[in-house]
Amino acid sequence: MTRRAVTDTARLRLKLCGAAALMLLCSACGDGIPKDKDDEDGGDPPPAPVAALSILAGDPTIEGTMDGAGTAARFKSPRGIAIDADGNLYVADTGNFVIRKITPAGVVTTVAGAAGTSSFVDGDTGNARFENPMAVAVNRRGTIYVADNLRIRSITSAGRVGTTTSIPIGSNVAAGRVTSVVLGAIAVDANDNLFITNSYSTRRISGGDTLMLEGQSVVNGLTGVSLFEPRGVALDSNNNLFVFDLEREISRWNPNGFIGVNNMITLAGAPNARGSSNGVGNAARFEQVVALTVDPRGNVYAADAINNLVRRITPEGVVTTVAGSTRSTTLRTGDLPGSLADVRGIVTDGKGNLYVTSGNAVVKIRLP
Fold first, then answer.
1. What does the pLDDT read at residue 10?
2. Partners of 181 in the beta sheet?
3. Which of 29, 59, 70, 272 is buried deepest, with most CB atoms within 10 A?
4. pTM, 2 dp
């Protein structure tokens, strides 16, 4: 064999070895095409949650006292609802005179009070009694505050029920019109200041001192007054207060602002105008907003009773309806807007979900 033939043969062997090495490398590394994370996980990314209305716990048409999971549990005219840092819900089960807890999985237990017994007793949660629990709020330490007739009650994480403060009333009230001044809504800020509403006032209670934001400190001579109308109140992450005020508007109050006549700024609605129209600012109409909640983006959500709607108010004052059919009397689950009945309480988890008391149930609204 000539030297040229030997050289050509060596070159051929080198090429074959290089090709084999390249094939081995490709086999070890795959097909060499970059893959994104979804391909590595074996499929497309999961679809976004579908906007919908569903029952978390209870049955909207059946009253009862039973603890349990999901629709096996029973409530009786639940009203206020609040959420803690772990996603547990707390419900003022008004008709049963108790406070209930709902886990994120929908398991319902009784926190304090005795079903069917209306009374005023402080003490351990098993022995404590409530007269007329209307609304609840939870602070960062897990203390639950309850608006109970003319008192604010507290339930500590250690299982003790106490009375935080009582609300003063004027003359001619105890003679049969107490129901006109009982507390309708409650909120608590990061500094444990409490904000409460009834038919005649909005107040901030801090360390035992009361500041009137609107209305009257005491009410005298209640002959001929209207029936009790609870009004919603809520706080955002900056401690701005939102309230359905005495003129039937949703207003914002900044705790760092001036205390005086003009300390509340109207966000939406018109003075003493009723209705269900969506719109911007004073073009929108509400009927009776009994509860409010605020999401991390500053959107306010309103439980608009009588209309039986859930309304959204943006920071710019744009009002839209996100759930419910105007003046519906039945609950319809499924795709939004669905329908709601006897809307009484609302809270957001800050993750795109709202929880609403409707009839004898607690419903979950997944927003788009």
1. 45
2. none
3. 59
4. 0.85
